[in-house]
Structures are given as structure tokens and as C-alpha cells.
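We store chain and fold; example below:
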Amino acid sequence: MTRQRLPSPDSSRIAIFSTDDVDHDDREEYWNRIATRYFGHLEAHATGPLEFRATLTTRLVSFLRTFRIVGSGHQVRRDAPNGGAVPDAIKLLLQVRGRCRVDQNGRTADLNPGSWCVYDTWRPYAITN
């Protein structure tokens, strides 16, 4: 498994993480480490027959941290409350391409390109891309 040095979450420089540089068998574990660093404990799993591929680009812009995630079909879940692992955050998810479904508190939002939703990262949720 390729080990990449992770920048500090408060770094203002652009950071890019890609599974392309990781052995196929280690990609989900690598992606879960990246997700946990920025979003608290999450579990990501491929949802289709294709190998898992994803790239995350992040940058601090003023007081907001921006993320751009491009990837193959996968699901991300937080089954328990954040519990303070990362600061309280409200996320705005803008779907640019493809589709995704966000499930939280018994509600579901199906997003197509150009649609968006807001969700509370403190509470359990699932996002299926």
C-alpha cells in the first residue's frame, strides 16, 4: 500500500488524495483513512462490480473547507453520532455529475446533476453514489 503524507486538516494549501496510487486491494482502507481524517469515522464501500476509484481534492477558503470528490459507485455511512471526532459541521452537497442518495433521520434526498442538499454530519447518515 502506498503511504501518502496527509496535510494537517487546517492547512490552507490544496491537498489531493487518489486511490489511483494505491494497490487495488487496499483502496477502500485507504479511502476510509482519508475520510476519517476529514469527516470523522465513516465506512466507504464500492457498490458496483467495478473496482473502487476515488479522488478527493480539498482546500481551506476563508473559514470554509471545500471538498471535491470524484469516484466510482460507492456508499459512505456513519452509523453512530460523530461524538466530537471532528468539529460540528453542516455539509452542503452539490451534485455535479451522476446521481446520489442521501439518507438521514428517516428522510431521503435523491440528487441529480445541478441539485443539492444540506445535512448534519453530527448525526448518522448514508450517501450512496
